[in-house]
Amino acid sequence: MTSATPIDDRMIARRLAAARAIAEDAAALAMAMRPPPGGPTGTTKGMQDYLTETDGAVEKLIAERLNALYPEDGFMGEEAGSRRSGTLTWVVDPIDGTSNYARGRERWCISIGLMHGKLPVAGVIHAPALHEIYTAQRGHGAFLNGKRIKASDIADTRTAMVEMGWSPKVTPDVYAKHMRAFMSLGVMPRSCGSGALAIADVACGRQEAYLELVINLWDVAAGMVLLHEAGAVTSPFLEIGGLTGGALLFTAAPAIAGELARAAEVALD
Questions:
Q1: Stretch 239-252: mean pLDDT, rounded?
Q2: What Gene3D superfamilies does the annotation carry (predicted)?
Q3: What is the torsional sign of CA 24, 233, 139, 77?
Q4: pTM (predicted TM-score)
Q5: How many domains in the chain?
């Protein structure tokens, strides 16, 4: 997918550096507000769909800092419903993996993506409880804590690990159908509660694929740059409705992407 108006790489690089610094401050706030291990805190927006005080506080911090630095940029945030148009648009999930965060678990993150029109061009995924920061700029590589990453080289599905996100918008029968299809290939299935970190795991080779039948742009905007730069294969998420609502996302290591996609009955870019 391309955008019509050229952009200056240096402009994107400066914004990526700013986003990383803002993500670190947002992570410190989230860690300070993090609940202790135990039953979930906060409220629910729906079945297994949690909302904590931290979600709003972190999004507010990120939105205010980005607006102060780049008032001409657009902004899309998950929680406050903030929308502002611009040639460049920030797409933010303040706490991805809120169900984990609300229970004092470690697998959650802050995701800040930058879009140029319909094209993801930069992103930061900061998982402070895991001490991990992923960064990527289109055309300049993907990194974990400053070290370049790439998708897995595994070519045998019998040694592959695949994550499938759970959503109340998907019926149990459909979810089970896809899990059975993967397991018939000898795949090890799992579900860990953060779409952004599942994407990051594919980008750095910790797992070979990730399937989410309904996911939103704020969950994946940063991660899609990671995937592109790490050499992973993805489905056409943006083209099938991901820009404006929930859509299917599938991504996989290149050597087994085709086989897994056929099993899951999904198209690839």
A1: 94
A2: 3.40.190.80, Fructose-1,6-Bisphosphatase, subunit A, domain 1
A3: negative
A4: 0.92
A5: 2
